[in-house]
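Quick one, tokens below. Sequence please?
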């Protein structure tokens, strides 16, 4: 008799849970469909061309290290285009890149690479 008295509350609780309507059952939370925050990356660079000389300053305000390279395309067909060695712009760091052509500069750009 003692065993049935201890099982009575458990039996009643299970019966109540099983008799609940579906809408009253707990369910997993659904995300509010907001896109994840973007992973910001990339140093801000500014370049200066004076004659045949090019100087670029790149400042990395983000947490990830940015490997930057300076690319110079020269105007004359016989002038050799140059690419600088990669330089790591670590967080909150400014790096200087420089290069030149023999004569005029046609275009300059910076490439960025995420370090792994």
């Amino acid at each position: 008799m003692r065993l049935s008295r201890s099982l009575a509350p458990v039996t009643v609780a299970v019966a109540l849970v099983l008799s609940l309507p579906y809408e009253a059952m707990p369910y997993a939370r659904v995300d509010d469909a907001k896109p994840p925050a973007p992973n910001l990356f990339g140093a801000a660079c500014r370049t200066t061309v004076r004659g045949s000389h090019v100087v670029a300053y790149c400042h990395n305000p983000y947490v990830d290290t940015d490997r930057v390279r300076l690319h110079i395309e020269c105007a004359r067909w016989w002038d050799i285009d140059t690419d600088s060695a990669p330089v790591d712009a670590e967080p909150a760091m400014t790096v200087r890149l420089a290069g030149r052509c023999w004569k005029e500069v046609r275009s300059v750009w910076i490439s960025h690479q995420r370090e792994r």
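The mean pLDDT is 85. The longest strand covers residues 105-114.
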